[in-house]
Protein backbone atom coordinates (compact mmCIF):
# COMPACT_ATOMS: atom_id res chain seq x y z
CA UNK A 1 0.00 0.00 0.00
CA UNK A 2 1.38 3.36 -0.94
CA UNK A 3 1.50 6.00 1.70
CA UNK A 4 1.64 9.57 0.58
CA UNK A 5 3.42 10.87 3.63
CA UNK A 6 6.58 12.88 3.57
CA UNK A 7 9.49 10.45 3.42
CA UNK A 8 12.66 11.42 5.23
CA UNK A 9 15.50 11.53 2.72
CA UNK A 10 17.84 8.61 3.23
CA UNK A 11 21.44 9.73 3.38
CA UNK A 12 22.56 7.47 0.56
CA UNK A 13 19.97 8.99 -1.77
CA UNK A 14 21.45 12.41 -1.21
CA UNK A 15 24.88 10.91 -1.70
CA UNK A 16 23.79 9.42 -4.98
CA UNK A 17 22.51 12.78 -6.17
CA UNK A 18 25.86 14.36 -5.46
CA UNK A 19 27.78 11.53 -7.08
CA UNK A 20 25.70 11.84 -10.25
CA UNK A 21 26.21 15.59 -10.40
CA UNK A 22 29.96 15.09 -10.14
CA UNK A 23 29.93 12.42 -12.85
CA UNK A 24 27.99 14.71 -15.20
CA UNK A 25 30.37 17.58 -14.48
CA UNK A 26 33.23 15.20 -15.23
CA UNK A 27 31.76 14.43 -18.64
CA UNK A 28 31.47 18.15 -19.35
CA UNK A 29 35.09 18.57 -18.28
CA UNK A 30 36.15 16.27 -21.15
CA UNK A 31 35.80 19.25 -23.51
CA UNK A 32 38.34 21.20 -21.48
CA UNK A 33 40.62 18.17 -21.24
CA UNK A 34 40.47 17.68 -25.01
CA UNK A 35 41.60 21.26 -25.61
CA UNK A 36 44.37 20.86 -23.04
CA UNK A 37 45.32 17.52 -24.62
CA UNK A 38 45.54 19.08 -28.08
CA UNK A 39 47.65 21.97 -26.80
CA UNK A 40 49.93 19.66 -24.77
CA UNK A 41 50.49 17.18 -27.60
CA UNK A 42 51.10 19.86 -30.26
CA UNK A 43 53.45 21.94 -28.12
CA UNK A 44 55.20 18.93 -26.56
CA UNK A 45 55.87 17.15 -29.85
CA UNK A 46 56.91 20.23 -31.83
CA UNK A 47 59.06 21.87 -29.16
CA UNK A 48 62.25 19.91 -30.00
CA UNK A 49 61.98 21.27 -33.56
CA UNK A 50 62.30 24.80 -32.27
CA UNK A 51 65.57 23.89 -30.58
CA UNK A 52 66.97 23.25 -34.06
CA UNK A 53 65.07 25.91 -35.97
CA UNK A 54 64.68 29.43 -34.69
CA UNK A 55 61.14 30.75 -34.46
CA UNK A 56 62.24 33.67 -36.60
CA UNK A 57 63.36 31.55 -39.54
CA UNK A 58 60.25 29.35 -39.09
CA UNK A 59 58.10 32.42 -39.61
CA UNK A 60 60.15 34.21 -42.28
CA UNK A 61 62.03 31.64 -44.39
CA UNK A 62 60.83 31.52 -47.99
CA UNK A 63 61.25 27.78 -48.56
CA UNK A 64 59.65 24.72 -46.96
CA UNK A 65 61.90 21.73 -47.63
CA UNK A 66 62.09 19.83 -44.31
CA UNK A 67 62.87 16.50 -45.95
CA UNK A 68 65.80 17.69 -48.09
CA UNK A 69 69.47 17.28 -47.18
CA UNK A 70 69.61 20.96 -46.32
CA UNK A 71 66.22 21.45 -44.71
CA UNK A 72 64.51 24.82 -44.59
CA UNK A 73 61.44 25.54 -42.55
CA UNK A 74 59.44 28.52 -43.77
CA UNK A 75 55.84 27.95 -42.67
CA UNK A 76 54.87 30.96 -44.80
CA UNK A 77 55.15 28.76 -47.90
CA UNK A 78 52.45 26.39 -46.67
CA UNK A 79 50.35 29.28 -45.38
CA UNK A 80 50.50 30.93 -48.82
CA UNK A 81 48.86 27.82 -50.31
CA UNK A 82 46.31 27.79 -47.51
CA UNK A 83 45.58 31.51 -47.96
CA UNK A 84 45.17 31.23 -51.74
CA UNK A 85 42.78 28.28 -51.66
CA UNK A 86 40.87 29.87 -48.76
CA UNK A 87 40.54 33.19 -50.61
CA UNK A 88 39.13 31.43 -53.68
CA UNK A 89 36.75 29.49 -51.44
CA UNK A 90 35.56 32.60 -49.61
CA UNK A 91 35.16 34.54 -52.86
CA UNK A 92 32.61 31.85 -53.76
CA UNK A 93 31.07 31.18 -50.37
CA UNK A 94 30.58 34.67 -48.91
CA UNK A 95 28.66 36.35 -51.76
CA UNK A 96 26.58 33.31 -52.67
CA UNK A 97 25.97 32.36 -49.04
CA UNK A 98 24.80 35.89 -48.26
CA UNK A 99 22.54 36.15 -51.30
CA UNK A 100 21.01 32.73 -50.59
CA UNK A 101 20.48 33.62 -46.93
CA UNK A 102 18.77 36.88 -47.91
CA UNK A 103 16.61 35.11 -50.47
CA UNK A 104 15.60 32.38 -48.04
CA UNK A 105 14.90 34.75 -45.16
CA UNK A 106 13.24 37.70 -46.93
CA UNK A 107 11.80 36.41 -50.19
CA UNK A 108 11.19 32.65 -50.27
CA UNK A 109 7.79 31.33 -49.22
CA UNK A 110 7.80 29.22 -46.07
CA UNK A 111 7.19 25.97 -47.92
CA UNK A 112 10.03 26.58 -50.36
CA UNK A 113 12.43 27.58 -47.58
CA UNK A 114 11.63 24.45 -45.61
CA UNK A 115 12.43 22.29 -48.63
CA UNK A 116 15.62 24.14 -49.63
CA UNK A 117 17.21 24.03 -46.18
CA UNK A 118 17.50 20.21 -45.92
CA UNK A 119 18.99 20.13 -49.43
CA UNK A 120 21.63 22.64 -48.34
CA UNK A 121 22.33 20.49 -45.29
CA UNK A 122 22.70 17.47 -47.55
CA UNK A 123 25.30 19.38 -49.56
CA UNK A 124 27.13 20.24 -46.33
CA UNK A 125 27.07 16.56 -45.42
CA UNK A 126 28.92 15.26 -48.49
CA UNK A 127 32.22 13.79 -47.23
CA UNK A 128 35.13 16.03 -48.16
CA UNK A 129 37.08 13.14 -49.64
CA UNK A 130 34.24 12.79 -52.15
CA UNK A 131 34.40 16.53 -52.88
CA UNK A 132 38.13 16.12 -53.46
CA UNK A 133 37.42 13.42 -56.03
CA UNK A 134 34.87 15.75 -57.62
CA UNK A 135 37.37 18.64 -57.76
CA UNK A 136 40.13 16.55 -59.31
CA UNK A 137 38.15 14.50 -61.83
CA UNK A 138 35.17 16.71 -62.72
CA UNK A 139 35.83 20.38 -61.94
CA UNK A 140 39.46 20.52 -63.08
CA UNK A 141 38.81 18.89 -66.50
CA UNK A 142 35.87 21.26 -66.95
CA UNK A 143 38.04 24.30 -66.13
CA UNK A 144 40.76 23.01 -68.45
CA UNK A 145 38.30 23.27 -71.32
CA UNK A 146 37.99 26.99 -70.60
CA UNK A 147 41.67 27.47 -69.77
CA UNK A 148 43.79 24.77 -71.43
CA UNK A 149 47.01 25.84 -69.67
CA UNK A 150 45.58 24.98 -66.26
CA UNK A 151 47.67 22.24 -64.59
CA UNK A 152 45.77 19.14 -63.42
CA UNK A 153 46.53 19.99 -59.80
CA UNK A 154 45.66 23.60 -58.96
CA UNK A 155 44.48 25.77 -56.10
CA UNK A 156 41.62 27.19 -58.18
CA UNK A 157 39.45 24.11 -58.52
CA UNK A 158 40.23 22.99 -54.95
CA UNK A 159 39.21 26.46 -53.76
CA UNK A 160 36.03 26.53 -55.86
CA UNK A 161 34.85 23.17 -54.53
CA UNK A 162 35.82 24.20 -51.00
CA UNK A 163 33.70 27.32 -51.52
CA UNK A 164 30.71 25.19 -52.53
CA UNK A 165 31.27 23.17 -49.37
CA UNK A 166 31.19 26.34 -47.24
CA UNK A 167 28.12 27.96 -48.89
CA UNK A 168 25.63 25.95 -46.78
CA UNK A 169 27.33 26.97 -43.52
CA UNK A 170 27.34 30.67 -44.40
CA UNK A 171 23.81 30.57 -45.82
CA UNK A 172 22.31 28.71 -42.89
CA UNK A 173 23.96 30.75 -40.12
CA UNK A 174 23.30 34.07 -41.90
CA UNK A 175 19.70 33.12 -42.47
CA UNK A 176 19.27 32.50 -38.74
CA UNK A 177 20.75 35.96 -38.06
CA UNK A 178 18.50 37.66 -40.64
CA UNK A 179 15.39 35.93 -39.34
CA UNK A 180 16.16 37.06 -35.80
CA UNK A 181 15.74 40.70 -36.85
CA UNK A 182 12.45 41.98 -35.39
CA UNK A 183 9.55 42.31 -37.83
CA UNK A 184 8.89 45.91 -36.71
CA UNK A 185 12.08 47.05 -38.47
CA UNK A 186 10.85 45.61 -41.77
CA UNK A 187 7.41 47.10 -41.28
CA UNK A 188 8.99 50.49 -40.63
CA UNK A 189 10.91 50.27 -43.89
CA UNK A 190 7.85 49.14 -45.89
CA UNK A 191 5.87 52.01 -44.38
CA UNK A 192 8.41 54.41 -45.86
CA UNK A 193 7.83 52.85 -49.27
CA UNK A 194 10.94 50.66 -49.53
CA UNK A 195 10.86 47.57 -51.73
CA UNK A 196 11.59 44.16 -50.26
CA UNK A 197 15.16 44.27 -51.55
CA UNK A 198 15.76 47.78 -50.20
CA UNK A 199 14.40 46.65 -46.84
CA UNK A 200 16.50 43.50 -46.88
CA UNK A 201 19.70 45.21 -47.94
CA UNK A 202 19.51 48.54 -46.14
CA UNK A 203 17.63 47.64 -42.96
CA UNK A 204 17.64 43.90 -42.20
CA UNK A 205 21.21 43.18 -43.34
CA UNK A 206 22.86 45.90 -41.21
CA UNK A 207 20.75 44.89 -38.21
CA UNK A 208 21.86 41.28 -38.54
CA UNK A 209 25.41 42.07 -39.52
CA UNK A 210 27.22 40.78 -36.45
CA UNK A 211 25.56 37.39 -36.81
CA UNK A 212 26.40 37.36 -40.51
CA UNK A 213 29.98 38.38 -39.77
CA UNK A 214 30.23 35.49 -37.31
CA UNK A 215 29.22 33.11 -40.11
CA UNK A 216 31.94 34.60 -42.36
CA UNK A 217 34.57 34.15 -39.66
CA UNK A 218 33.49 30.55 -39.17
CA UNK A 219 33.73 30.07 -42.94
CA UNK A 220 37.33 31.33 -42.86
CA UNK A 221 38.15 28.88 -40.11
CA UNK A 222 36.57 26.02 -42.12
CA UNK A 223 38.58 26.97 -45.19
CA UNK A 224 41.89 27.11 -43.32
CA UNK A 225 41.36 23.71 -41.74
CA UNK A 226 39.89 21.87 -44.73
CA UNK A 227 42.13 18.98 -45.65
CA UNK A 228 40.97 16.33 -48.09
CA UNK A 229 39.84 18.61 -50.94
CA UNK A 230 43.20 20.39 -51.13
CA UNK A 231 45.20 17.22 -50.44
CA UNK A 232 43.58 15.55 -53.46
CA UNK A 233 43.11 18.41 -55.92
CA UNK A 234 45.66 21.15 -55.16
CA UNK A 235 48.96 19.31 -55.52
CA UNK A 236 51.58 18.42 -52.95
CA UNK A 237 54.69 20.51 -53.66
CA UNK A 238 55.19 23.37 -51.23
CA UNK A 239 55.76 26.54 -53.22
CA UNK A 240 55.53 30.17 -52.38
CA UNK A 241 52.72 31.42 -54.59
CA UNK A 242 49.49 33.33 -54.37
CA UNK A 243 48.48 32.36 -57.90
CA UNK A 244 45.38 30.12 -57.87
CA UNK A 245 46.24 28.76 -61.33
CA UNK A 246 49.28 26.95 -59.93
CA UNK A 247 49.57 23.78 -57.88
CA UNK A 248 50.74 24.25 -54.28
CA UNK A 249 50.62 22.42 -50.97
CA UNK A 250 48.63 23.83 -48.08
CA UNK A 251 49.41 23.38 -44.39
CA UNK A 252 46.87 20.58 -44.08
CA UNK A 253 48.10 18.87 -47.27
CA UNK A 254 51.60 18.70 -45.85
CA UNK A 255 50.40 16.98 -42.66
CA UNK A 256 48.43 14.34 -44.60
CA UNK A 257 51.28 13.79 -47.03
CA UNK A 258 53.84 13.16 -44.29
CA UNK A 259 51.50 11.22 -42.02
CA UNK A 260 50.46 8.88 -44.86
CA UNK A 261 53.95 7.50 -45.13
CA UNK A 262 54.89 5.55 -42.00
CA UNK A 263 56.86 8.19 -40.13
CA UNK A 264 59.46 7.27 -37.51
CA UNK A 265 58.61 8.56 -34.04
CA UNK A 266 60.74 11.49 -32.94
CA UNK A 267 62.27 12.17 -36.34
CA UNK A 268 62.42 15.61 -37.88
CA UNK A 269 59.45 15.00 -40.20
CA UNK A 270 57.45 13.79 -37.19
CA UNK A 271 58.19 17.08 -35.39
CA UNK A 272 57.31 19.27 -38.37
CA UNK A 273 53.73 18.00 -38.74
CA UNK A 274 53.04 18.86 -35.10
CA UNK A 275 54.54 22.33 -35.60
CA UNK A 276 52.34 22.90 -38.68
CA UNK A 277 49.29 21.61 -36.79
CA UNK A 278 50.09 23.96 -33.91
CA UNK A 279 50.02 26.92 -36.30
CA UNK A 280 46.69 25.69 -37.74
CA UNK A 281 45.26 25.22 -34.26
CA UNK A 282 46.25 28.73 -33.17
CA UNK A 283 44.88 30.27 -36.37
CA UNK A 284 41.51 28.54 -36.13
CA UNK A 285 41.39 29.22 -32.37
CA UNK A 286 41.72 32.93 -33.10
CA UNK A 287 38.98 32.81 -35.74
CA UNK A 288 36.63 30.68 -33.60
CA UNK A 289 36.99 32.99 -30.61
CA UNK A 290 36.46 36.02 -32.85
CA UNK A 291 33.26 34.49 -34.27
CA UNK A 292 32.01 33.68 -30.78
CA UNK A 293 32.78 37.20 -29.57
CA UNK A 294 30.96 38.81 -32.50
CA UNK A 295 27.94 36.57 -31.94
CA UNK A 296 27.79 37.30 -28.23
CA UNK A 297 27.89 41.03 -28.93
CA UNK A 298 24.95 40.65 -31.27
CA UNK A 299 22.96 38.76 -28.66
CA UNK A 300 23.58 41.50 -26.11
CA UNK A 301 22.51 44.17 -28.58
CA UNK A 302 19.46 42.13 -29.49
CA UNK A 303 18.32 42.20 -25.88
CA UNK A 304 18.56 45.97 -25.81
CA UNK A 305 16.25 46.44 -28.78
CA UNK B 1 5.63 65.61 -67.41
CA UNK B 2 3.92 65.46 -64.06
CA UNK B 3 5.81 66.28 -60.86
CA UNK B 4 5.69 62.63 -59.86
CA UNK B 5 7.68 61.29 -62.85
CA UNK B 6 11.06 61.12 -61.06
CA UNK B 7 9.44 59.14 -58.25
CA UNK B 8 7.85 56.76 -60.72
CA UNK B 9 11.24 56.26 -62.39
CA UNK B 10 12.86 55.45 -59.08
CA UNK B 11 10.17 52.96 -58.23
CA UNK B 12 10.53 51.33 -61.63
CA UNK B 13 14.29 51.02 -61.11
CA UNK B 14 13.92 49.66 -57.61
CA UNK B 15 11.61 46.99 -58.95
CA UNK B 16 14.01 46.15 -61.76
CA UNK B 17 16.88 45.77 -59.31
CA UNK B 18 14.74 43.57 -57.13
CA UNK B 19 13.91 41.33 -60.09
CA UNK B 20 17.61 41.17 -60.95
CA UNK B 21 18.40 40.11 -57.36
CA UNK B 22 15.80 37.37 -57.51
CA UNK B 23 17.30 36.23 -60.81
CA UNK B 24 20.74 36.01 -59.24
CA UNK B 25 19.37 34.07 -56.26
CA UNK B 26 17.58 31.58 -58.52
CA UNK B 27 20.69 31.27 -60.66
CA UNK B 28 22.69 30.44 -57.54
CA UNK B 29 20.17 27.86 -56.40
CA UNK B 30 20.22 26.37 -59.88
CA UNK B 31 24.02 26.28 -59.90
CA UNK B 32 24.12 24.54 -56.53
CA UNK B 33 21.57 22.01 -57.73
CA UNK B 34 23.57 21.50 -60.94
CA UNK B 35 26.76 20.96 -58.94
CA UNK B 36 25.00 18.45 -56.72
CA UNK B 37 23.58 16.58 -59.71
CA UNK B 38 26.94 16.83 -61.50
CA UNK B 39 28.65 15.30 -58.47
CA UNK B 40 26.36 12.28 -58.53
CA UNK B 41 26.34 11.99 -62.31
CA UNK B 42 30.12 12.01 -62.57
CA UNK B 43 30.47 9.37 -59.84
CA UNK B 44 27.77 7.21 -61.39
CA UNK B 45 29.23 7.60 -64.88
CA UNK B 46 32.75 6.59 -63.80
CA UNK B 47 31.87 4.05 -61.14
CA UNK B 48 28.95 2.37 -62.83
CA UNK B 49 30.92 -0.67 -64.02
CA UNK B 50 32.20 -1.42 -60.52
CA UNK B 51 28.87 -1.07 -58.70
CA UNK B 52 28.15 -4.78 -58.44
CA UNK B 53 27.26 -6.76 -55.33
CA UNK B 54 30.73 -8.37 -55.24
CA UNK B 55 32.30 -4.89 -54.92
CA UNK B 56 30.88 -4.88 -51.41
CA UNK B 57 31.83 -8.50 -50.75
CA UNK B 58 35.49 -8.72 -51.78
CA UNK B 59 38.70 -7.48 -50.19
CA UNK B 60 41.14 -4.95 -51.65
CA UNK B 61 43.32 -6.18 -54.48
CA UNK B 62 46.26 -5.00 -56.52
CA UNK B 63 44.13 -5.52 -59.61
CA UNK B 64 41.66 -2.70 -59.98
CA UNK B 65 38.86 -4.81 -61.46
CA UNK B 66 39.00 -7.26 -58.55
CA UNK B 67 39.33 -4.81 -55.67
CA UNK B 68 36.36 -4.46 -53.33
CA UNK B 69 35.43 -2.60 -50.18
CA UNK B 70 34.49 -5.41 -47.79
CA UNK B 71 37.18 -4.60 -45.21
CA UNK B 72 36.41 -0.89 -45.60
CA UNK B 73 32.71 -0.91 -44.84
CA UNK B 74 33.09 -3.44 -42.04
CA UNK B 75 35.90 -1.26 -40.66
CA UNK B 76 33.73 1.86 -40.91
CA UNK B 77 30.95 0.02 -39.09
CA UNK B 78 33.06 -1.16 -36.13
CA UNK B 79 34.77 2.23 -35.80
CA UNK B 80 31.32 3.87 -35.68
CA UNK B 81 30.31 1.52 -32.84
CA UNK B 82 33.27 2.76 -30.76
CA UNK B 83 32.65 6.37 -31.81
CA UNK B 84 29.04 6.18 -30.66
CA UNK B 85 30.06 4.44 -27.42
CA UNK B 86 32.41 7.36 -26.68
CA UNK B 87 30.38 10.33 -27.92
CA UNK B 88 26.86 9.43 -26.80
CA UNK B 89 27.36 8.90 -23.02
CA UNK B 90 29.90 11.73 -22.70
CA UNK B 91 27.99 14.15 -24.91
CA UNK B 92 24.58 13.52 -23.36
CA UNK B 93 26.02 13.69 -19.83
CA UNK B 94 27.80 16.95 -20.59
CA UNK B 95 24.66 18.38 -22.17
CA UNK B 96 22.54 17.37 -19.17
CA UNK B 97 25.08 18.90 -16.81
CA UNK B 98 25.20 22.22 -18.66
CA UNK B 99 21.45 22.49 -19.12
CA UNK B 100 20.05 21.01 -15.88
CA UNK B 101 22.76 21.38 -13.24
CA UNK B 102 25.35 24.03 -14.08
CA UNK B 103 25.17 27.38 -12.38
CA UNK B 104 26.46 30.35 -14.35
CA UNK B 105 30.00 30.54 -13.01
CA UNK B 106 33.54 30.46 -14.35
CA UNK B 107 33.68 26.66 -14.55
CA UNK B 108 30.57 26.61 -16.74
CA UNK B 109 31.85 29.45 -18.90
CA UNK B 110 35.15 27.62 -19.36
CA UNK B 111 33.37 24.47 -20.53
CA UNK B 112 31.12 26.40 -22.89
CA UNK B 113 33.91 28.33 -24.56
CA UNK B 114 35.80 25.05 -24.99
CA UNK B 115 32.85 23.37 -26.68
CA UNK B 116 32.43 26.32 -29.05
CA UNK B 117 36.10 26.25 -29.91
CA UNK B 118 36.38 22.47 -30.30
CA UNK B 119 33.51 22.52 -32.81
CA UNK B 120 35.76 24.63 -35.06
CA UNK B 121 39.09 22.84 -34.59
CA UNK B 122 40.16 21.32 -37.93
CA UNK B 123 39.66 17.57 -37.97
CA UNK B 124 43.28 16.98 -38.91
CA UNK B 125 44.33 18.53 -35.60
CA UNK B 126 42.27 15.82 -33.87
CA UNK B 127 44.25 13.36 -35.98
CA UNK B 128 47.50 14.66 -34.54
CA UNK B 129 46.08 14.62 -31.00
CA UNK B 130 45.32 10.95 -31.63
CA UNK B 131 48.76 10.28 -33.12
CA UNK B 132 50.53 11.87 -30.14
CA UNK B 133 48.21 10.71 -27.36
CA UNK B 134 46.56 7.42 -28.34
CA UNK B 135 49.04 5.93 -30.82
CA UNK B 136 52.40 6.95 -29.34
CA UNK B 137 51.83 7.77 -25.68
CA UNK B 138 49.16 5.23 -24.69
CA UNK B 139 50.37 2.69 -27.26
CA UNK B 140 46.95 1.86 -28.76
CA UNK B 141 48.44 1.69 -32.28
CA UNK B 142 46.48 2.35 -35.46
CA UNK B 143 43.55 0.35 -34.12
CA UNK B 144 39.77 0.50 -34.22
CA UNK B 145 39.93 1.84 -30.65
CA UNK B 146 42.18 4.78 -31.58
CA UNK B 147 39.99 5.72 -34.55
CA UNK B 148 36.79 5.40 -32.53
CA UNK B 149 38.13 7.52 -29.65
CA UNK B 150 39.37 10.18 -32.09
CA UNK B 151 36.11 10.45 -34.02
CA UNK B 152 34.17 10.27 -30.74
CA UNK B 153 36.00 13.33 -29.40
CA UNK B 154 35.57 15.03 -32.80
CA UNK B 155 31.77 14.79 -32.76
CA UNK B 156 31.41 15.40 -29.01
CA UNK B 157 30.54 19.12 -29.49
CA UNK B 158 27.77 18.21 -31.97
CA UNK B 159 26.19 15.77 -29.50
CA UNK B 160 26.50 18.22 -26.59
CA UNK B 161 24.88 21.07 -28.52
CA UNK B 162 22.08 18.84 -29.84
CA UNK B 163 21.41 17.47 -26.35
CA UNK B 164 21.18 20.97 -24.89
CA UNK B 165 18.81 22.12 -27.60
CA UNK B 166 16.64 19.05 -27.09
CA UNK B 167 16.55 19.60 -23.32
CA UNK B 168 15.56 23.22 -23.81
CA UNK B 169 12.46 22.21 -25.74
CA UNK B 170 11.17 20.23 -22.74
CA UNK B 171 8.81 22.62 -20.94
CA UNK B 172 9.55 23.49 -17.29
CA UNK B 173 6.09 22.25 -16.27
CA UNK B 174 7.30 18.65 -16.75
CA UNK B 175 10.12 19.27 -14.28
CA UNK B 176 7.87 21.13 -11.84
CA UNK B 177 5.35 18.30 -11.87
CA UNK B 178 8.07 15.80 -11.11
CA UNK B 179 9.50 17.88 -8.28
CA UNK B 180 6.01 18.38 -6.92
CA UNK B 181 5.63 14.66 -6.27
CA UNK B 182 8.92 14.63 -4.42
CA UNK B 183 11.39 13.43 -7.06
CA UNK B 184 15.02 14.33 -6.78
CA UNK B 185 16.73 16.23 -9.55
CA UNK B 186 18.28 13.11 -11.06
CA UNK B 187 14.99 11.21 -10.90
CA UNK B 188 13.34 14.12 -12.72
CA UNK B 189 16.03 14.20 -15.39
CA UNK B 190 16.24 10.45 -15.87
CA UNK B 191 12.57 9.55 -15.72
CA UNK B 192 10.93 12.56 -17.34
CA UNK B 193 13.21 15.09 -19.02
CA UNK B 194 15.54 12.73 -20.90
CA UNK B 195 12.74 10.54 -22.33
CA UNK B 196 10.97 13.67 -23.56
CA UNK B 197 14.19 14.97 -25.15
CA UNK B 198 15.22 11.60 -26.59
CA UNK B 199 14.18 12.12 -30.25
CA UNK B 200 16.05 15.43 -30.39
CA UNK B 201 19.14 13.87 -28.87
CA UNK B 202 18.91 10.97 -31.32
CA UNK B 203 18.76 13.40 -34.24
CA UNK B 204 21.96 15.07 -33.02
CA UNK B 205 23.69 11.72 -32.56
CA UNK B 206 22.85 10.64 -36.10
CA UNK B 207 24.07 13.97 -37.52
CA UNK B 208 27.30 13.57 -35.54
CA UNK B 209 27.82 10.01 -36.74
CA UNK B 210 27.14 10.96 -40.36
CA UNK B 211 29.86 13.58 -39.99
CA UNK B 212 32.24 11.04 -38.43
CA UNK B 213 31.61 8.43 -41.11
CA UNK B 214 33.00 10.69 -43.84
CA UNK B 215 35.98 12.06 -41.92
CA UNK B 216 39.22 11.06 -43.57
CA UNK B 217 42.00 13.32 -42.31
CA UNK B 218 42.01 12.23 -38.63
CA UNK B 219 42.16 8.53 -39.44
CA UNK B 220 44.77 8.96 -42.16
CA UNK B 221 47.11 10.71 -39.71
CA UNK B 222 46.89 7.96 -37.08
CA UNK B 223 48.41 5.68 -39.72
CA UNK B 224 45.44 3.54 -40.70
CA UNK B 225 46.44 1.04 -43.36
CA UNK B 226 44.80 1.01 -46.76
CA UNK B 227 45.38 -2.53 -47.86
CA UNK B 228 43.70 -4.97 -45.50
CA UNK B 229 42.50 -8.41 -46.55
CA UNK B 230 40.93 -9.62 -43.33
CA UNK B 231 38.10 -8.63 -41.00
CA UNK B 232 38.43 -7.73 -37.32
CA UNK B 233 37.91 -10.69 -34.94
CA UNK B 234 34.24 -11.44 -34.38
CA UNK B 235 32.72 -10.00 -31.18
CA UNK B 236 30.91 -13.27 -30.40
CA UNK B 237 32.35 -16.78 -30.39
CA UNK B 238 30.75 -20.19 -29.95
CA UNK B 239 33.10 -21.12 -27.05
CA UNK B 240 33.62 -19.60 -23.60
CA UNK B 241 33.58 -16.60 -22.84
CA UNK B 242 31.34 -16.09 -25.91
CA UNK B 243 32.02 -12.39 -26.26
CA UNK B 244 35.35 -10.80 -26.96
CA UNK B 245 36.60 -7.25 -27.33
CA UNK B 246 39.65 -8.32 -29.35
CA UNK B 247 38.23 -6.40 -32.32
CA UNK B 248 38.90 -3.00 -30.78
CA UNK B 249 42.65 -3.66 -31.04
CA UNK B 250 42.44 -4.79 -34.64
CA UNK B 251 43.97 -2.74 -37.46
CA UNK B 252 41.30 -1.50 -39.80
CA UNK B 253 40.56 0.39 -42.95
CA UNK B 254 37.52 2.55 -43.66
CA UNK B 255 35.51 3.72 -46.65
CA UNK B 256 36.92 7.28 -46.72
CA UNK B 257 40.50 5.97 -46.50
CA UNK B 258 39.96 3.57 -49.39
CA UNK B 259 38.30 6.35 -51.40
CA UNK B 260 41.23 8.67 -50.74
CA UNK B 261 43.77 6.00 -51.65
CA UNK B 262 42.09 5.09 -54.92
CA UNK B 263 41.49 8.75 -55.82
CA UNK B 264 45.11 9.78 -55.35
CA UNK B 265 46.64 6.85 -57.26
CA UNK B 266 48.45 8.02 -60.37
CA UNK B 267 47.32 5.13 -62.58
CA UNK B 268 43.84 5.53 -63.96
CA UNK B 269 42.67 1.95 -63.44
CA UNK B 270 41.47 2.68 -59.96
CA UNK B 271 39.32 5.68 -60.90
CA UNK B 272 36.21 3.59 -61.38
CA UNK B 273 36.80 2.03 -57.96
CA UNK B 274 37.32 5.47 -56.43
CA UNK B 275 34.05 6.65 -57.93
CA UNK B 276 32.18 3.57 -56.74
CA UNK B 277 33.60 3.86 -53.21
CA UNK B 278 32.84 7.60 -53.15
CA UNK B 279 29.28 6.88 -54.23
CA UNK B 280 28.86 4.23 -51.53
CA UNK B 281 30.15 6.68 -48.92
CA UNK B 282 27.94 9.52 -50.14
CA UNK B 283 24.83 7.34 -50.16
CA UNK B 284 25.62 6.19 -46.63
CA UNK B 285 25.93 9.75 -45.29
CA UNK B 286 22.93 10.92 -47.29
CA UNK B 287 20.86 8.07 -45.86
CA UNK B 288 21.91 9.00 -42.32
CA UNK B 289 21.16 12.67 -42.90
CA UNK B 290 17.82 11.64 -44.32
CA UNK B 291 16.97 9.67 -41.17
CA UNK B 292 17.97 12.67 -39.06
CA UNK B 293 15.84 15.05 -41.13
CA UNK B 294 12.87 12.68 -40.93
CA UNK B 295 13.25 12.39 -37.16
CA UNK B 296 13.36 16.16 -36.83
CA UNK B 297 10.30 16.57 -39.04
CA UNK B 298 8.29 14.02 -37.05
CA UNK B 299 9.52 15.63 -33.88
CA UNK B 300 8.29 19.06 -34.86
CA UNK B 301 4.88 17.70 -35.78
CA UNK B 302 4.38 15.66 -32.64
CA UNK B 303 5.61 18.32 -30.27
CA UNK B 304 2.38 19.15 -28.48
CA UNK B 305 2.54 19.78 -24.76
UniProtKB/TrEMBL annotation, chain B:
<dbReference type="InterPro" id="IPR000515">
    <property type="entry name" value="MetI-like"/>
</dbReference>
<feature type="transmembrane region" description="Helical">
    <location>
        <begin position="110"/>
        <end position="134"/>
    </location>
</feature>
<dbReference type="InterPro" id="IPR035906">
    <property type="entry name" value="MetI-like_sf"/>
</dbReference>
<feature type="transmembrane region" description="Helical">
    <location>
        <begin position="274"/>
        <end position="295"/>
    </location>
</feature>
<feature type="transmembrane region" description="Helical">
    <location>
        <begin position="20"/>
        <end position="48"/>
    </location>
</feature>
<feature type="transmembrane region" description="Helical">
    <location>
        <begin position="140"/>
        <end position="162"/>
    </location>
</feature>
<dbReference type="Pfam" id="PF00528">
    <property type="entry name" value="BPD_transp_1"/>
</dbReference>
<feature type="transmembrane region" description="Helical">
    <location>
        <begin position="216"/>
        <end position="234"/>
    </location>
</feature>
<keyword id="KW-0812">Transmembrane</keyword>
<keyword id="KW-0813">Transport</keyword>
<comment type="similarity">
    <text>Belongs to the binding-protein-dependent transport system permease family. CysTW subfamily.</text>
</comment>
<feature type="domain" description="ABC transmembrane type-1">
    <location>
        <begin position="73"/>
        <end position="292"/>
    </location>
</feature>
<keyword id="KW-1133">Transmembrane helix</keyword>
<keyword id="KW-0472">Membrane</keyword>
<feature type="transmembrane region" description="Helical">
    <location>
        <begin position="68"/>
        <end position="98"/>
    </location>
</feature>
<keyword id="KW-1003">Cell membrane</keyword>
<dbReference type="InterPro" id="IPR005672">
    <property type="entry name" value="Phosphate_PstA"/>
</dbReference>
<protein>
    <recommendedName>
        <fullName>Phosphate transport system permease protein PstA</fullName>
    </recommendedName>
</protein>
Amino acid sequence: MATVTHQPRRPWARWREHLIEWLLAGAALVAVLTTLGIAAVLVGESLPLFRQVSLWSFLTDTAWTPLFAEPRFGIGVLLAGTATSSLVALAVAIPSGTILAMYLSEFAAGQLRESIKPVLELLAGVPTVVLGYFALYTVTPFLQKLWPALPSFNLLSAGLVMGIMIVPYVASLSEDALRAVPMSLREGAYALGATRLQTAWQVVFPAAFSGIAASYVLGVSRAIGETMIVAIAAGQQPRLTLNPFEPAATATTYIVQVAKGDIPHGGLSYRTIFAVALVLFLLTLAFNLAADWVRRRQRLRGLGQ
Amino acid sequence: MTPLTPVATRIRWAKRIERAFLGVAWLLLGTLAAVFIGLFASMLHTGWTRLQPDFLLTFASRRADQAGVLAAWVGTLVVMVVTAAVAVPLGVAAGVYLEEYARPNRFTALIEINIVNLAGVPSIVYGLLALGLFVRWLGFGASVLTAGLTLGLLILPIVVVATREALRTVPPTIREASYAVGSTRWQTVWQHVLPAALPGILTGVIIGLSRAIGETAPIVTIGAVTFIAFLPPAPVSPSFPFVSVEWIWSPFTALPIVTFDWTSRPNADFRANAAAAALTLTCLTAAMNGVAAWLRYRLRRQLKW
